[in-house]
Design goal:
With 192 residues, this protein is mainly α. It folds into 2 domains: 55 residues, no CATH class; 94 residues, no CATH class. Helices cover 59% and strands 5% of the residues. It is built from 8 helices and 3 strands, in the order E-H-H-E-E-H-H-H-H-H-H. It has a 3-stranded antiparallel beta sheet. Helix 7 runs antiparallel to helix 8. 15% of the residues are buried.
Length: 192
């Protein structure tokens, strides 16, 4: 059995400023490797002896690698922030063109869309159901604008960009169909 106070996990190394590449290059293979008996996981536990880690951290090579990792991390963050700003600007600038349909045609398409999605049940009798279906249909019809989100991955501004795009789409639907404005405002309020 190993004394865990004298070993570091990969997560512990990351907290000390190590990157995965630095671990592979400077430390190499872990000192202890195996399955954690306390958890049901196929992922092996890799432990690095603290004394060995501290010895490597005192070397000039570690200092160079850490400085390089800091620069590349900052560059990656700056690049992601630039992409986020560009996507938000594109969403703000893009005109949202809502298809203009006669009321009867919009109702027919909304009902058909609901049934194509597999919705069943007594929802047809509910008050305001048709208005909700129409807004849902129009939102789906405008999903081509989702391509504006391309280039944003993970948490780097994607949620903010998605909210802004939905807001712009609902505002465009409300402007094109004043009878649907209340439902659009309700959806915007629900997302905040």
């Amino acid at each position: 059995m190993t004394d865990r106070t004298t070993y570091l996990t990969l997560e512990g190394l990351r907290e000390r400023g190590w990157t995965d590449a630095m671990v592979g290059d400077l430390l190499g293979a872990p000192d202890v490797q195996g399955r954690d008996p306390r958890r049901w996981s196929l992922t092996p536990v890799r432990l690095y002896r603290l004394a060995r880690v501290e010895a490597v951290e005192r070397t000039p090579e570690f200092g160079r690698c850490a400085a390089s990792a800091g620069r590349s991390s900052a560059a990656a963050e700056a690049g992601a922030e630039g992409r986020r700003r560009a996507v938000l600007a594109a969403i703000r600038a893009q005109p949202i063109e809502v298809p203009r349909l006669p009321s009867a045609e919009l109702e027919r398409r909304a009902v058909r869309h609901r049934h194509l999605l597999g919705a069943r049940g007594p929802g047809e009798a509910a008050a305001g159901a048709l208005v909700r279906w129409q807004v849902s249909y129009l939102r789906h019809a405008l999903s081509r604008y989702d391509t504006l989100l391309d280039g944003l991955y993970g948490a780097t501004g994607r949620a903010e960009a998605e909210r802004l795009l939905r807001l712009r789409v609902y505002e465009a639907i409300a402007a094109a169909y004043p009878a649907l404005a209340r439902e659009c405002r309700r959806r915007i309020g629900a997302e905040r």
